Every structure is written in structure tokens, then in C-alpha cells.
Amino acid sequence: MSRLHTEFAGIAFKNPVVLASGTCGFGRELAECFDIEKLGGLSSKGLIIHPHGGNDGIRIWETPSGIMNSVGLENPGIEAFIEQDLDWINEKDVVNIVNMGGHSKEDYFRGAERLNDVNIDILELNISCPNVKEGGMNFGVKTEAARELVREVRKISKHKLVVKLSPNAEDIVALAKMCEEEGADGVSLVNTFLAMAVDIDKKAMVFQNGYAGLSGPAIRPIALRMVHQVCKAVKIPVMGMGGITTWQDAIAFIMAGAQVVQVGTATFMKPDISLDIIAGVEKYMEDNHLDSLNEIRGIL
Ligand code: DOR
Hints:
The chain contains ten helices and 16 strands. The chain is of the alpha/beta class. It has a single domain, classed as Alpha-Beta Barrel (TIM Barrel), CATH 3.20.20.70. Strands 3-4-7-8-9-10-15-16 form an eight-stranded parallel beta barrel, surrounded by five helices. A four-stranded antiparallel β-sheet has the order 5-6-14-11, with no helix packed on it. A two-stranded antiparallel sheet has the order 1-2. The protein is globular and about 55 Å long. It starts with 5 loop residues before the first strand and ends in a 13-residue tail after the last helix. The structure holds (4S)-2,6-dioxohexahydropyrimidine-4-carboxylic acid. The site of (4S)-2,6-dioxohexahydropyrimidine-4-carboxylic acid (DOR) has 14 residues, from loops.
């Protein structure tokens, strides 16, 4: 077994690097750029039980240290995903994580029920999209409001359940503890930070919703701090993310306690950047005579 082998809630990952939701669609386009079976896992674009067109107006805005997005959970719907993409992904030797969002609690319940009929490895419950007016982030900001949702989806879903948390939460540690109490198998954090951009020529806010989600290197130190705090507070495993761009970043998140890391925004700059990260982590392990990442995980 490779020294990169990682277990997450009983699921075997050949290495700890996962493509974050929203950065790889359902994997097909990236498979044209590189061998996606070299990845540990792949998290799908956020899916809702019904197809959704997403937000109007500008959706992506670059900053010097990351990007802002207001995609608004555009997605083809769970049914279309099952018909068109699921078999293709399941044939690949990569952990298949399905990220699921919603506009209402009913959306989440129906989505979780439908996904019970099919084979996936992990259901990543996205309660943290900052770009959905109804539902979405509202669920993920207040711990007690999110509790019922997590509890019900836990009851419905037969899959491993990982809850994706918002850095905009009133208390991210309390939110993670609540997920643990309600039976989640793990948490992933952080989704994007609520942020704002101004077009000074138009004298207007750039995004139609006003605010949008900031990702990339700008958020990395804050994400790292949140991952560290959550890892200290819960026993369930954590998928860490937020601006991971280099193998050094991945090692830092693992030292903070992350079991698995997700790479998002950096993929937009270089589609196969995860392979560089995997190679760098392996070289670091060799140089430091590590047989397992457990030797450095959570040491801080
Ligand atoms: O920043 C984000 N944008 N996070 C999500 O969870 C979803 C996405 C979107 O579709 O807006």
C-alpha cells in the first residue's frame, strides 16, 4: 500500500487529495486534461433535486489573491447527473463524493432519498453556499437552524455523510460539534467567505446579489485556523480546504488535523495542479522518512 493511503470514515483514499466541488464539474472535462484516477477523490458540482439555472449577471470576479463567485448552484439536477455521469464516474478508481445543495429543506430531503437508490461513496451535504438567497447558507450560518436539516438527512441517507461548513457561520466549532452529535461521518470546511466587489466605473456592486463567495490564497490562513479549531474540537474526520495551492499548503492543513484536503480555486489556474500537490506531499514524506501521514496529522 502506498504511503499516501488515507482512510476517511472507513473509506479508503489512495491519497488525501480531492478536487473540491464546483471546480471540476462531474469530472469529464478534467479527464481530458489528466488522468483523474491519480486523485484521491472528486467532489461533484453541487447538485439539487431539480435543475437550476443559477444566478444572473456577473458570476466570477478575479482578485489579486483569489476569485469571487456567485454561480448560485447552477446544476443539471440529480436525475440528469444519475443518467449522464454517475456510471462514468463509478467506473473510475477514485472516491466519488456527491455534493448536494438545496433551496429548501424539502430539496435536501428529496435529494438524499433519490441518492439512496444509487451507488456513491460520500454524500457531501452543502449547507454553506453563500450565493443562494433562500436556503443555502441560511442553513449553515446558525447552528440550531442547521441541526434539524443535518438530523433529518442523516436519518434519510444510507451513505457516508460529510457536512460542508460555512466560514460565515456564527460559530464554526459549534456547527461542527452539532454535525458530530447528529451522526455525520465527517465535516468539510471551509466553503467560500462572503465578500464584496465594487465596479467603480459603474458605481455599483459587481454581483447582482451584492455579496459573493471569496476563495483562493486570500482565505487560506483563516481556513487553516478554522480547520485547526474544528479538528481539536471533534472526533469525526475533517476534509480541509481553503486556498490550498501547493503541496506545502496541503501538509499544513494535514498538520492542522485534516484527514483529507480539497483543492478548489487553484484548479482553475492549472487543471492538474492536484497532481503536483500529490507528488510534493509524497516527496516530503520520503525526505522526512514518514510511512504514513498519521505521523504528522494533527501535530500542531
Ligand atoms: O462559493 C460557492 N459557490 N460555494 C458553493 O457551495 C456553491 C457555489 C455556487 O454555486 O454559487
